[in-house]
Amino acid sequence: MTLNTDYLIVGAGITGLTLAERISSQLNKRAIVVDHRNHFGGNLFDANLCGIRCPKYGLHYFHTNHKHVYDYLSLFTRWWMTSRYEIMSWTDGKMYPFPICLGTYELFMERECTEDEFKEYLALNRIAPVHEGPPKNGEEAILAQVGLEFYNKFYRNYTIKQWGVDPSLLDPSVLLRHPIRTDRNCSRSTDTYQCMPYRGYLLMFNNMLEACRDNATLLVNTDYFDYKDKINAEHIIYTGPIDRFFNYQFGRLPYRSIRHEVKVYNARRYQYCAQVNFPNDDKKYTRAIEVRHTITGEYAKYGDTSKTAVIYEYPQKYEGGTEPVFPILTEEGKSTYLKYQDVALDREDVTFAGGLATFQYLNIAESVEQALATFETLKKRH
């Protein structure tokens, strides 16, 4: 039996569900959404664990300066829980605030310091690239901002554990996603909107599906490559790894996978803040994220519980049996992707969207922003 539809959307993550909702509600077109996993929501899927909203694939914190992205997602959550995501880095026997700020420098110096002192330290220790122009890789980018001591303490080993390659091989943008400040602001982001959806992302996605249920059909446990001959679609939106779509004709693109291990502790709070980084080799995991912090609002909702959950992240190679999570932005990888992009541009019957299909390192807000822009392009065709 062949299923007929206007749009076939491959992938039921944030990108695929955003496009399904817009196409169904705004264009009144039929859409079939398929995902090879046994659930929708992609890497944002969460579930209830001992009374705690626990993400299966690690915590994803929403932050953006773009009001239209915030307003769009606000259509599908009763309210947002505003929050302040704090990170610490455990290295050399101390817990340092991260991203780097004045508090980080004070612990490094083991005394109270002024902002001017920290600025002077950075000016004396920065290492400019030996070539003209901006830094060409992640190592050069960080050395040009904080110098060798802080680079070795916070960035080099963490990057190797996280990405499986040396920072000198990565695009500068990968290591520059966290700001470096000379004041005492140690929050992860200064974006206008920093929050988590009420009762987690799963409820938000349920509301998105409910908004388009008259026109959209969701099929989980359905691999596009096994079922593509059974679905007749006028247009395909593909959000998976682009190299697989083209049967690896230019070789495999480098993606990184992550294994998540969740541990439940008999305590109201296990660690000092939401996220602790472990840049050195004494731990196999890169970071530990305690879900039951105020970033998810679980303390307010389950204030009397005696348990807490911590997610440990173990980066690993993307190979058989693992899920691709992020593209590894090396020069070789970007060069290979451009070959796939060229053949993708010739496919008028397919739109490629999402971080895996466009070989970009996108957070939640960036994924939604790209999906909304993709929808506007599709809308012009109608």
Offer a concise description of the structure.
This protein has helices at residues 14-26, 67-74, 102-109, 115-125, 138-163, 172-175, 200-211, 224-227, 242-245, 298-301, 331-345, 355-358, 364-380, and strands at residues 3-10, 31-34, 46-49, 52-55, 62-64, 80-82, 87-91, 94-98, 193-197, 216-219, 231-238, 255-265, 275-277, 287-290, 308-317, 326-327, 350-352. It is α/β, with parallel strands linked by helices. The chain starts with a strand and ends with a helix.
How helix-rich are the residues, as a percent range?
25-40%
Spell out the CATH superfamily of one domain: NAD(P)-binding Rossmann-like Domain
Shape: globular
CATH fold naming of one domain = Rossmann fold
Radius of gyration from CA coordinates: 22 Å
Unreliably modeled segments: none
Describe the largest sheet: 7 strands, mixed
* Category by helix and strand content: alpha/beta
Q: Give the termini distance in whole angstroms.
A: 28 Å
Please identify the oligomeric state.
single chain
Query: Helical element count?
Result: 13
Residues in β-strands, percent: 15-25%
Could you give the count of β-strands? 17
CATH architectural group of one domain: 3-Layer(aba) Sandwich
Mean pLDDT score: 92
- The helix/strand series, from N terminus to C terminus, equals EHEEEEHEEEHHHHEHEHEHEEEHEEHEHH
The neighbouring-strand order within the major sheet is 8-7-13-14-15-12-16
The CATH class of one domain is identified as Alpha Beta
